[in-house]
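Folding problem:
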Amino acid sequence: MPGDRAGKVLVHEGFHCQLHKRQNSRFRWRCWQKECRVPLVTNDFNLEAENPRIRILDHKDHMHDVEMRQINRAKVREDLKREDPTV
């Protein structure tokens, strides 16, 4: 899912994670909430693919509740951006 500021966002178990860096054929992500910043590590995959094969290699517990309301809101915004305005 694209982020609001052109960054990449991964949603895992109801939590937003921002792409932090690519390292040794892995992606390192971190929680988007500044108070949390819990790390998440995935395999290296094509960020532009429609349905990429993502393997979670390591993750920790977050220090806050699941963010389903924000996730649903982001999905609706993304769907609206994809719609053809002439329809």
